[in-house]
Amino acid sequence: MAAIESPNPEDTFRLREYFGALWSRKWSIIALTLIGVLASGIYTYRTTPVYTSTISVLATNPTATIDQTGGVKFPPNMDVERSLITAYPVAACATQILSHLADDHIGADLSTICSPDTLAKTVPAPKIKQNLTVSFVQGSTVLNLADTEPSRKLAQAKVQAFALAYVNYKITLTQASLAARRVPVNTQIAVLDKSLASANVTFQKHIAAAAAAGGQCFACTADAQKIAVIQQQIGQFQQQLLSLSDTNITPPQVLAPAIYPLQPSSPNKKLNIGLGIFVGLALGIGLALLRERLDDRLRSRADLEDNAGVPVLAVIPKVPGWRKKSDARLVTATEPKSAVAEAYRTLRTGILFASVQRGIKTVMVCSPLAGDGKTTTATNLAVVLADGGKRVILLSADLRKPRVHQFFGMENDKGVSNILAGELQPWESLGDQTIDNLRVLPSGPVPAKPAELLGSERMGELIAGLREVADFVIIDTAPVLLVADAAALSPLVDAVLLVANAENSTRSAVAHARERFEQVDAPLIGAVLNNFDPTRARAYTYRYRYGYGYRYRTYGGYGGYGYREYADEPPPNGDAGRRAEPPARVPPSQRG
User: Fold this and answer.
1) Most confidently modeled of 49-53, 301-305, 545-549, 559-563?
2) Which residues sit opposite 393 in a β-bridge?
3) Banded model confidence at residue 320, pLDDT cuts 50, 70, 90
4) Which residues make Cβ contacts (< 8 Å) with residue 108, sequence separation at least 6?
5) Rounded to an integer, what distance in angstroms lies between the CA atom of residue 293 and that of residue 345?
6) How far apart are CA 500 and CA 311, in angstroms?
7) For residue range 46-87, what is the model confidence (pLDDT) as tens digits?
8) Looking at the DSSP assignment, which residues form a beta bridge with residue 297?
9) CA 412 to CA 424: how far, in whole Å?
10) Of 247, 248, 304, 337, whose Cβ has the fewest other Cβ atoms within 10 Å?
11) Can you give the pLDDT at residue 332?
């Protein structure tokens, strides 16, 4: 028994992806379908209705019974018969028939209406053959005439007129042909009649001469034989005349009167509406698939994995009710039992596993562009690692637009920039937190040359020192595609975590970020898909539909440069931006 082949999982993936793309753009498909239906309805409404009448004529060979040889009749040539219907004499006769129908002379004899003298003076009506079609089925001798006109009566009258004109024309042609064929026969009969009369006179003379002589008439026998031969020949020619009689003609027959059309043949409302639906649906589906093909935005978790070249360690759901991204919310501390907090714990599991396998202690969290949620990810990852009993230091290395301090309600008057400038020691900048096992090192005042400071030897010493006193050092830095900070800092860390936003990030941005890290041989270990909205996910396994809407703006900052991680609010000036209130202390046992 042959094995049944299972469907290719990749083919199933693609089919689900196509259906997901169509579902995500269902409203545009519906709109184009409605436009197609509306267009077909307008076309149908504005098109003048026309009616088609048909009639069938049995074509024959009128002299078939006369010309048959060995009992075999010759059928008509249907191509010739079809061309005869639209011939000039037939069109002229049809014109005369239509004129008599208009004058209510329908009972008039066709031989009179279409007499040769009348047709010689008749010119076919203009465009009388324009809408007339003649067809036949191969192997059949039935001609099908059809005519389409705005008037029902005119369509019926025209096909009826052409059918009758064709029959009359065939009969007239056949009668003329038989009359011509009878002429030589009648001539021969006339000659034989004269010969018979002469033979009879001679025969009578011989009889009279024999009676006067009282003897036997020896010439009478020859005369009688001659007369018999002549009479036999005359009989044969007369029989031939009988075969050439008009009564032996087999004329074409109109099988049934022309149909009076009750419904218009065009426009076909059902067909037009169906075509409108089909065309609109085809255009909608085609446009949806084209937009999906040209769309550069991340469409699935697999898209992020393919373009980042690393596995996705966690998918962070969108925080319900969080509409202002400028608001710093530490979800893992304020809502420890939420689905979002659980997603960060999944990320923690991935980091802990990587730590065991590779000895990772310093993790840099970065993103391709601003607004992807790298700072939110870094802060919440630090909290869940601390909840897991790990000693964690959260270092804010984004020296251009820092936000880490806002999540913890801290001041940003001192921090990393002061340490790198030699103004402070690391322990003097570490802030006390209400979360056990977690210490936060803010970025401090914005320096003149952030990239140079982050790539300096002093920064390496700082990270090495923090690494010795903590289980994990989580480092938040600037977007990799906007500035060189992340690339300068990546050689100093054990691992790099790339964060992409389900609503903003594009595949090309993620791929470019990966290339940037590859250029500096950065230890990229995984990615995080942030701000994922399950309500807008596509309905297929392992591939999700994300809400699209990338927006990026630049603002002036120190030295004329700046970037923004906020959606609607202006960027904060130093530490004067909006700060969140410090979260209430929550014991680890109650954080899930």
Assistant:
1) 49-53
2) 439, 473
3) low
4) 100
5) 35
6) 13
7) 989 999 999 999 999 988 777 776 666 778 999 999 999 999
8) 506
9) 14
10) 247
11) 84
Give counts: helices (H), strands (E), the chain: 21, 11
What is the percentage of the chain residues whose pLDDT exceeds 90? 38
**Per this entry, what is the length of the chain?**
592
In the prediction, which pLDDT does 206 show? 86
Residue 177 CB burial class (10 angstroms; 0-12, 13-18, ≥19): middle
Q: Say what the pLDDT of residue 128 is.
A: 92
Q: Can you read off the two tokens belonging to residue 177?
A: 């042909």
137-161 pLDDT tens trace: 999 999 999 999 999 999 999 999 9
pLDDT of residue 549: 32
Task: Give the whole-angstrom CA distance, residue 133 versus residue 54.
Answer: 10
Task: Give the list of residues 6+ apart from residue 571 with CB closer than 8 angstroms, or none.
Answer: 401, 555, 557, 562, 564, 577
Query: Does the pLDDT of residue 581 top 60, yes or no?
Result: no
* Cβ-contact 383, 332 below 8 angstroms: yes
Cβ-contact 504, 549 below 8 angstroms = yes
Residue pair 192/233 in contact by the 8 Å Cβ criterion: yes
Count of CA atoms in the C-beta half-sphere (13 A) of 415? 28
- Sheet strand arrangement including 438-441: 312-317, 524-532, 495-501, 362-366, 472-476, 392-396, 438-441
Name which of 510, 550, 17 is nearest 292 in CA terms. Answer: 17
State the Cα–Cα distance between residues 169 and 454, nearest whole angstrom. 105
Q: Phi then psi for 87, rounded to 5 degrees?
A: -70, 160
User: Judging by DSSP bridges, how do beta strands 132-136 and 495-501 pair with one another?
Assistant: unpaired
| Predicted local distance difference test score (pLDDT) of residue 14 | 65
Q: Which two tokens stand for residue 551?
A: 């927006």
456 close to 450: Cβ distance less than 8 angstroms: no
Q: List the beta strands (DSSP E) in 338-477.
A: 362-366, 392-396, 438-441, 472-476
Query: Binning pLDDT at 50, 70 and 90, where does residue 317 land?
Result: confident
Q: How many CB atoms lie within 10 A of CB 505?
A: 31
Q: For residues 327 and 436, is the Cβ–Cβ distance under 8 A? A: no
**Tens digit of each residue's pLDDT (9 = 90 or more) over 10-50:** 555 567 777 877 887 889 999 999 999 999 999 888 989 99
What's the confidence (pLDDT) of residue 563?
Answer: 40
- The alpha carbon torsion through 11, 17, 19, 25 (nearest 10 deg) reads -160
**Under 8 Å between Cβ of 363 and 472:** yes
pLDDT exceeds cutoff 90 at 415: no
Closest by Cα among 179, 181, 183, 185 to 116: 179
Side-chain-side CA neighbours of 2 within 13 Å: the count stands at 3
Q: Chain-wide mean pLDDT for the chain?
A: 82
In sequence order, what are the residues at sequence separation of 6 or more whose Cβ sits closer than 8 angstroms to the Cβ of residue 515?
Answer: none
Between CA 42 and CA 44 the distance in angstroms is 5
Amino acid at 389: G
- Cα dihedral 537/538/539/543 (nearest 10): -90
Residue 102 to residue 105: CA distance in whole angstroms: 8
Instruction: Give pLDDT, residue 535.
Output: 62
The amino acid sitting at 374 is K
